[in-house]
Amino acid sequence: MKLKNILFVFSIMAFLLFPSSISAKAVQAQTSSSNSNAANAKITNLISRADREIDRRVAAMNIILKKINGLKDLTADQKTSLTTQIQANIANLNTLKTKIDADTDITTLTTDVQSIVGNYKIFALFNPKIRLLSVAEVMNNIVDKFTALSTKLATRIADLKSQGKDVTAMQASLTDLNSKIASAKTTVQAAIDELIPLDPKGYPGNKIQLQDARAKLQTAKQALMDAKKDAETIIQGLKAAGGNTSNTNTNVSPTNSNSTSSQSGTNTNQ
């Protein structure tokens, strides 16, 4: 029998005698290939999701940058501090995105993906922080309006006093009005000073400062509401005494209560 025929016969015999061994190797190879494909699909999916989350955060921070530039009551140094914080976070996120896109190990990739939320609390800290700074600016504008109103009311009261009218009650309300305005101004500034240095890297450890700044703005809001009542009382007194009440409009809202009453740093969509 020729050698080729002999080898063929032996291969047939091996197949007939040890079919399970050959089948097991084939199944093992197929399983290994299937597992590899599943792992690659998981890596691709994780990278895609991570890229979307990073892009979402970068877009949000670019919007915040525009808002910062529009805050007129912040000093140049405060704006620079905030801008530097945000730009650093954007740069770090872009660096992380490059690393994630190059990851091939599922364990390393998972750790990097988790760091998007773990290290970059954009929605948990930056968003409420900028929102509170915007509220603070609104309150400072109201403080300015009440300050101007107080000056007008003081002039009207002085006019009545020069006419021999009793202005004791109005003067007491004016004193309280000025006290409330000063208190609101000081408290708003304290809130701003507390908010400026807060950085996502410190979250949730600095969540208490975020909440405290919110509480300060609530206190300032109440002071402005009390100031408005004082002004209305003075205007009523001026009218009753026949005084001039022109250009003494008190139609100024201290600010929407929803802006300062919602819970800070509780957004789980980080």
What does this entry look like structurally?
There is one protein chain. This protein is mainly α. The protein folds into two domains: 37-119; 122-261. It has helices at residues 3-17, 19-70, 76-102, 106-119, 122-162, 168-195, 207-240, 258-261. The model is unreliable at 262-268 (pLDDT under 50).
Number of helices: 8
In the residues, how many domains can be counted?
Answer: 2
- N-end to C-end Cα span: 77 Å
Which percent range fits the helix content? over 70%
The arrangement of helices and strands along the chain is HHHHHHHH
Radius of gyration, CA atoms, in whole angstroms: 34 Å
Judged by helices, strands and strand pairing, the structural class is mainly alpha
Keywords:
disordered C terminus, mainly alpha, rod-shaped, single chain, 270 residues
